[in-house]
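Support case: user asked for a sample of complex input and structure output to validate their parser. Sending the pair below.
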Amino acid sequence: MTAPHGQRPHVVIVGGGFGGLSAVRALRRHDVDVTLVDKRAYNTFQPLLYQVATATLNPGDVTYFQRAVRAVNPHVRFRLGEVVRMDHAARTVSLDSGEDLAYDHLIIAAGVTANFFGIPGAEDNALPIYTRDGALDVRTRLFTGLEAAATEGDEHGDVRVVVVGGGATGVETAGALAEMRNHDLQVTYPELDPQRTHVTLVEMAPVLLGAFHEGSQAYAKASLEKRGVDLRLGTKVAEVRPDGVVVGDGELIPAGLVIWASGIAVSSSVADWGVPQGKGGRILVDDHLRVQGLPDVYAVGDIALDEGNALPQLAQPALQGGKYVAKQIVAGLAGAPELPPFRYRDKGSLATIGRSAAVAEISHLPDLKGFPAWAVWTGVHVFSLLGNRNRAATMVNLTAKYAFWNKSHNAIVGDLPTVRERARQRRAS
Amino acid sequence: MTAPHGQRPHVVIVGGGFGGLSAVRALRRHDVDVTLVDKRAYNTFQPLLYQVATATLNPGDVTYFQRAVRAVNPHVRFRLGEVVRMDHAARTVSLDSGEDLAYDHLIIAAGVTANFFGIPGAEDNALPIYTRDGALDVRTRLFTGLEAAATEGDEHGDVRVVVVGGGATGVETAGALAEMRNHDLQVTYPELDPQRTHVTLVEMAPVLLGAFHEGSQAYAKASLEKRGVDLRLGTKVAEVRPDGVVVGDGELIPAGLVIWASGIAVSSSVADWGVPQGKGGRILVDDHLRVQGLPDVYAVGDIALDEGNALPQLAQPALQGGKYVAKQIVAGLAGAPELPPFRYRDKGSLATIGRSAAVAEISHLPDLKGFPAWAVWTGVHVFSLLGNRNRAATMVNLTAKYAFWNKSHNAIVGDLPTVRERARQRRAS
């Protein structure tokens, strides 16, 4: 059983995403030792992962080395690993390394993973953009498909991508793909007929951006249609097959690549963590973000659910929750009275569709559309990245993409299989 | 058999490195169609790959999408593939896709690969920094080793990296590793004792930077020693084992990671290309860079050898050779007299050792050392990158590394295996 050597209270934080890192930051000037556990060596800025998938940003632009947070809070130690068990009577968190961490206070901020809602074939045939690896897989599949079609010459089949989900991620992904088709492919893939390259977005609800206002929804719809995205609203996905998506009425929408931008779920391993779980497996918390029945255990962000006050699964509730919980722990240690219940302050919603096209709903401001919204989107996202280097590098790459429009057609790609390698892979599978 | 549809002469270029792309550029305003063949989808700026291996730059900062060169020369088409055969009587180049390219003029600029000189165990146990993938493998092994030692706690074994080769790549890699050990590890890996983290450089010659002047050699030696690199000059590698490097006298230098920065060789597939090969398998050319006996076939860069005038295997001879050959082809098509023989203009040599420490030997200028040399090194390398985006992004990342010294400790890492995953990998192997 390990705890830091000092006699200071020990806060264990599981998950170094928005919620976990905002708690790390909020604890930096206080007299506590912190152990941060994450199964990845880096933090991921998920709102920009679709830009990695569509080859505009480097994975390194939207990830941040977890161990570098010690520059922010020197009382943090990091453990790379997965939590396999928690024992709240003994106050321990057990890692896959075999190490048991003793905690005085525990913050669970482990986030969520993709949810395929049990739709047949979805997990096997659709690629979610929810992790760095997922985004890189989409990028490789996308460019491998383009290369294959280009090699086949004039007789190539149509190139078809289907995006499932009409929330911010789905809209942004479909918009970026349409911009690539409309502006880059004629230069980089002259072998392909743009008329035979298709981007389709499938959404069960009758509108895009369900969480936004009506004006923003209409603007997003018009912007995607203007860019030639085939919109299938009010359309339910019944099955995902290797050759496409079967929708409610039995129609097959053919696709060489299906991108999953719909739904998130709690990891199944949470069942071993000794915490009460509610809808979707989320951890049940009270109005102080305490896990029900466990006074020194908190849960924040996507993984937490206060049934009396369900919050959207976005960055802001996680950021605010992490900070609130850190303050709550510090107040408790100081013998100060308990904080009032957690209140989420909705700062607004943003989504971008393409160059100079975005929607921005900021609290206390009128809704923005078009270039002003796009400028706000860019500023907010870049400012939210951890570290000046990531901010500057992302700004450079987004600027290159949007300012040198139609002049540079660079794309950040990895290794693509050649024709011979593709044949070998097909034989092996 | 495919050739572009027009009646314009068709130049096939095999390899999109420094030599091939400089030919593509030089041909951009002339009346020829160009097909560029490369087995990778991107061009790699090899001189900065060691910065990818040591987690300062993104792979996307030092690679450039091959298909984006059409923005430079719209008469280029690209083929992703490997050359499996050439038939110079029929004037064809056969790709692994089965496609045969008919050429009027052929430029072979396929570069070289790592050379292990037949040293036992080297190919299996040492990692070369010669490709994007190679650099990423080094990065993953390096950080996996640090994480493993950090997890093991106070009893961890010493962390030892051996760099084989004292040329520019070896010196720059060892310098970057030493700077990481001296400046970053105390923040990011507080679990490790810096005294027990070792960087060793092994070089057969009695000096570092054999191609440089004596003053630069002495400066590089002193700079690495000052940074705590264990230098083993005049030391021959006899064997590379999983646990380290055995040197000439039978001593084992223990190492968890052996980086190979010594020697390059021509790919074995060149034997099927119907061209005369000389020392090290390099393609024999005359003083006009024509492949001996094949008047319409040229070879440039590392892969070419003019026995009467052997050139260093660096970027500059390739860049100048590609441009010269393009001019030669254009002159021939115009019926102009043959160009005078190719003359390589040595513009100088550069190597960096650490922050504000470098050597620069520029023709017609006195040799530079220290900060002025480092500033020249940075400027030349950044300026040499293809594309404004890569230039700006690299400048940002190098600036963050050197200007915010000791404040930011970000590192660009990928996925690292957790302890459980490492155990699983060990069992599987």
